[in-house]
Amino acid sequence: MKPVLSVIIPVFNRENFLERCIKSVSASSLKNIEIIVVDDGSEDNSGVLCDKLAKEDNRIFVIHQQNAGVSAARNRGLEKAQGKYFAFVDSDDYIEYDMYEKMVLAMEEHDADMVCCGIGKEYEEEPGRVEKLSHEHADTYVDAAHALKLLIRASGSNSISVYPGNKIGKREVQLNNRVFFDENIYETEDGVFWCDYIVSIRKAALLNDIFYHYVIHDKNVSRNCSISKSKLSNLTAWNHIIQKCRAMSGQLVSIAELRYQMCLSKMLFEAYCVYGCSNAIKSLLPQLKYYRKQLYQTKELSLSRKIYYLGCRIIVKYNLGRGTASLWKKVKEVLRNYL
Question: What angle do CA 14, 16, 9 make, to 5 degrees?
């Protein structure tokens, strides 16, 4: 009998988190699942641990491959998947035991093509700090255009977020529309994937429950501040999403353009804090004018967040010094609950 759900877990050097992750999926109250673990050329003991856990649960299938990146690992899992539905879990995260049972039930009750749940954002370095990211309206469903709007919105409290793990989709939709991860995009690749998926569906069901635990730690890819090929692919990703929004609904374009500007401003500011005004930053400064009106005029951001991003832009553009940038970061921490 084929599994109801295929859960794909890409792994690269996550031995300290891996067992908690995989066992949280194995403990799922939805028993008819397959767990596809793709070891993407790990250099620590992750690969050995994957094989050990597979011996303890015959629903776990391990694929070992040379390091090719998280997108390639997820694509390999999608190619091997046999389930009616598919889901992703990052190897440093974990889930609630009844997550998939309730999400599959919602998928079938609402005749939906995608189901999203809430996320708890946790910090390894700050035990007890949890940010709840969940949609403001519990247990409802929306059409594709509304789902795309919720995917790209800047506010976590009324969005479904671009994180890959709080969603399940239909394999039939994914295969028929050839939706795979772009292996040339290294960050926000999950946003591009789910954007491409959403433009192919009819409607999505939304659950407000916090079922997925997204763990932030010092080895997260997103913590890297250098303006690298990986970081620059963020801009490629948001450009792709802007084009998809333009094709679906003109009302979504300004939201996607806002996210582009927020991404650029944050990337430049974080790099400036560490490296000062480098040549890489100077080369990107002209792009600060792209979609700047969206940042000032949007109703998607609170006034305090607008002020914060404006400060980031001014500090970098006018090279006001790393000391000023550090002070502005402290202001952000003080105002964290308001940003």
Answer: 40
